[in-house]
Amino acid sequence: MARVLPWLTLAATLLLTTIKTSTASSMAKPGCRETCGNLTIPYPFGIGPGCYYTNGFDVSCEDNRTFMHNSSSLMEIYNISLIGGQARVSTLIATNCYKNGTTTDGWASATTAELFTISNKANKLTAVGCNTLAFLGGYNEYTAGAGCFSMCPNKQSVDDSGQCSGMGCCQTSIAPSLTSFNMTFDNRYNNSVVLEFNPCSYAFVAEQDSFRFEPFYLEGDKLTEKFKGGVPAVLDWVAGRESCDEAIKDRTSYACISNNSQCVKSPNATGYLCNCKDGFEGNPYLADGCQDINECQKPDHYKCFGICSNTIGGYNCSCPSGTHSIDPKISICNPHTASEKAKLTKLFIGISSCAILLLTCIFALLIECQKKRLMKEKERFFQQNGGLLLYEQIRSKQVDTVRIFTTEELEQATNNFHSSREIGRGSYGTVYKGILKDNRVVAIKRSKIMNMVQKDDFVQEMIILSQINHRNVVKLLGCCLEVEVPMLVYEFMPKGTLFELIHVTYRSPSISLDARLRIAQESAEALAYLHSSASPPIIHGDVKSPNILLGDNYIAKITDFGASRMLPKDEIQFMTMVQGTLGYLDPEYLQERQLTEKSDVYSFGVVLLELITRKTAIYSDGTEEKKSLASSFLLALKESRLQSILDRNILGVGMELLQEVAQLAKCCLSMKGEERPLMSEVAEKLRFIRRTWRKQLTENASEETECLLENPSNYDPSSTGRHGSLMALDLEIGR
Ligand SMILES: *[C@@H]1O[C@H](CO)[C@@H](O)[C@H](O)[C@H]1NC(C)=O
Ligand SMILES: *[C@@H]1O[C@H](CO)[C@@H](O)[C@H](O)[C@H]1NC(C)=O
Ligand SMILES: *[C@@H]1O[C@H](CO)[C@@H](O)[C@H](O)[C@H]1NC(C)=O
Ligand SMILES: *[C@@H]1O[C@H](CO)[C@@H](O)[C@H](O)[C@H]1NC(C)=O
Ligand SMILES: *[C@@H]1O[C@H](CO)[C@@H](O)[C@H](O)[C@H]1NC(C)=O
Ligand SMILES: *[C@@H]1O[C@H](CO)[C@@H](O)[C@H](O)[C@H]1NC(C)=O
Ligand SMILES: *[C@@H]1O[C@H](CO)[C@@H](O)[C@H](O)[C@H]1NC(C)=O
Ligand SMILES: *[C@@H]1O[C@H](CO)[C@@H](O)[C@H](O)[C@H]1NC(C)=O
Ligand SMILES: *[C@@H]1O[C@H](CO)[C@@H](O)[C@H](O)[C@H]1NC(C)=O
Ligand SMILES: *[C@H]1O[C@H](CO)[C@@H](O)[C@H](O)[C@H]1NC(C)=O
């Protein structure tokens, strides 16, 4: 069956029944029929001469159905959209049936009117059949084509999901902007093989969304029955093919003639369309077509909670006088009057700024208080620690050697008391290495809570200590009183303690006898000085090898004296102290709890023993049992086996001297204080022993190491600079 429908230019049966609807909202040209059946026909479409814009928009109305005139096939119009420039129309169906051994040569073609194109976005080439290959030959500017193949060997294989999946139905895209097409079938695929359930094949261009495939379409001529008028398809139309710029220039053919209309580019096709401007509605293709929207009458679309007044192209929504709008656009009116509102706003602003100001003040005050408290605390500690007293004393006695450091200074010097700066830690507290602003290296002693008897005493001590100026006494540089427990700042001793030198053997495998004697002598001199320089004498109270420090060239300097002033008061503290100085403590003191200069002498005796035996004050010689160095030594001396207890490294030459040192030590370790020599005597004796030793060394020069004899004649007991270097050398050799 072939249906050839040529260009139809049917003169419409002019229904001059001018339905007087010349209202402003009329979509048709004034004096023209506006509807056909249920469909409103808006200008540029129109029925009859003079009622349409241009040829393609010429439509006819038959039996309440609308048809396009100037189109190659009689297309029924189902729907017209002015805004998108689209129309839903019916299209032809090409049918190919197998009958009597032959196939009808079915084809269908269509040509759209000018300004109309077939929408390729909305439409698809659709073929229905079970051995069907359909072609579409189309034309836009060029020749275009599409093909669609569907196959289903039996009834069961037909896809019944409604989809055009290729089994009973297929769909394929078409080229854009087609103005004409011709659908044909390839007869090599015909319905002979599927005749019993599908005698015919169909092809058509259809709106994809409106066509749903049903398997029964394959039977007989069910499909053509269902879509008698044709399958819906979508056409794009434009008011002109030119762009808006071009269209506006050519005023004579410009379609957007309404006031308040505007030209827009067609969204789906090439060319332009007309729209009403915002705030207007109606038909932009008609003079006076775009009418102002009375927004106030459409509260569903245009919100206004106040008093609505329509304006041309918009509306004015305001609040009754005396009320204030929260949202100026839609006027949600606030019960507060404007002035009240303003007042409230002012009040609010006032209150909030006051609050902010107040908070800021409070905050600043808190910070200030904190600062003040800190300052007060510091001051309290300063006073508690006798800061003022110290100041006075410093002024009156013209002490210029001791400095009062601030906490900040010391924190800065020790990198906030960083652990990497720790150089010693004990029951007394921690010693840090500090570097002052002037690059001076110092040792800062931060004690744990100690039993400070009286602030006066402490200050007194400070004054005394600061006045002590002996080369073998570690110099006190200053203190910091702003903390609970004062911190003391000493000169820094780079070579550690005597304890480390003689007992941490890997550090100094061998120390010469001369070096040992020198250290002993220097320490003795320092103690003698302490005992004699001031009245009452300064008792060290804690003489032990860890309290003898070594400076450059291993010069010995004693530190931590004045313990007598800070003696423990209660039993627990006493026991702690005893434990700390076990092996050094004067037995008399243990009984009488009275420290004297002779207590220092006893302790020094133990240090002397450490030097010649290289054993710690409390030691164990392989066996579990801990022995007191002093008692072991005295026992060995009594049993005349001194050599057994002495350091093997110094045995050999100078045995008589060692005997003398041993005798000296024995005297120092006398049980009764009065039997012990004075510290000055000890120093004297050591000086003598040392001189003898050096003489012997010179005599034995040929056998001894050359370097040890470097400038032996230059000896001067009061100068240790030389000996310092000797000592260093000895140590070097020892390694
Ligand atoms: C018009 O619409 C009514 C109901 O909306 C419908 O019953 C009638 O069939 C329609 N007429 C045409 C010609 O489409
Ligand atoms: C067209 O529709 C109108 C009303 O909608 C009806 O009165 C008229 O009979 C219809 N005409 C035809 C031919 O159906
Ligand atoms: C136009 O098409 C839409 C859906 O695409 C439909 O809802 C509407 O009823 C149609 N209008 C007419 C007049 O056919
Ligand atoms: C073919 O069709 C003709 C009429 O068009 C009919 O008379 C004839 O019987 C048919 N032949 C067969 C084999 O069906
Ligand atoms: C129908 O198809 C068969 C094979 O599929 C072929 O032999 C036959 O010639 C075709 N008939 C026509 C009329 O093309
Ligand atoms: C045509 O344009 C309109 C408006 O942009 C849009 O809503 C519609 O989906 C388009 N039509 C097609 C088939 O893409
Ligand atoms: C459509 O194609 C068929 C087969 O090629 C041809 O016979 C027919 O003339 C074509 N129709 C048009 C309008 O071009
Ligand atoms: C349309 O605009 C023109 C000029 O811009 C004016 O003269 C005419 O009065 C307007 N028409 C209406 C109905 O507003
Ligand atoms: C809206 O109305 C108010 C009061 O009625 C007026 O002051 C204002 O100017 C109007 N705005 C516009 C855009 O017409
Ligand atoms: C439309 O119809 C007019 C008048 O009947 C004719 O001159 C014109 O060529 C036709 N246009 C098309 C595209 O068919």
Automatic annotation (TrEMBL):
Membrane topology value: Single-pass type I membrane protein
SMART domains named in the record: EGF, EGF_CA, S_TKc
Residues holding ATP: 445
Record-annotated Protein kinase domain positions: 417-689
Family matches, as PROSITE patterns: EGF_CA, PROTEIN_KINASE_ATP, PROTEIN_KINASE_DOM, PROTEIN_KINASE_ST
Membrane-spanning parts: 347-367
Domain of life: Eukaryota
Signal peptide start-end: 1-24
GO molecular function: ATP binding; calcium ion binding; polysaccharide binding; protein serine/threonine kinase activity
Cellular component, GO, one term: plasma membrane
One GO process term, biological-process aspect: cell surface receptor signaling pathway
Pfam families: EGF_CA, GUB_WAK_bind, Pkinase
Gene3D superfamilies: Laminin, Phosphorylase Kinase, domain 1, Transferase(Phosphotransferase) domain 1
UniProt entry keywords in alphabetical sequence: ATP-binding, Disulfide bond, EGF-like domain, Glycoprotein, Kinase, Membrane, Nucleotide-binding, Serine/threonine-protein kinase, Signal, Transferase, Transmembrane, Transmembrane helix
Entry keyword Repeat: no
Subcellular location, record wording: Membrane
InterPro entries: EGF (IPR000742), EGF-like_Ca-bd_dom (IPR001881), EGF_Ca-bd_CS (IPR018097), Growth_fac_rcpt_cys_sf (IPR009030), Kinase-like_dom_sf (IPR011009), LE_dom (IPR002049), NOTCH1_EGF-like (IPR049883), Prot_kinase_dom (IPR000719)
Protein name per the record: Protein kinase domain-containing protein
Lineage: Eukaryota, Viridiplantae, Streptophyta, Embryophyta, Tracheophyta
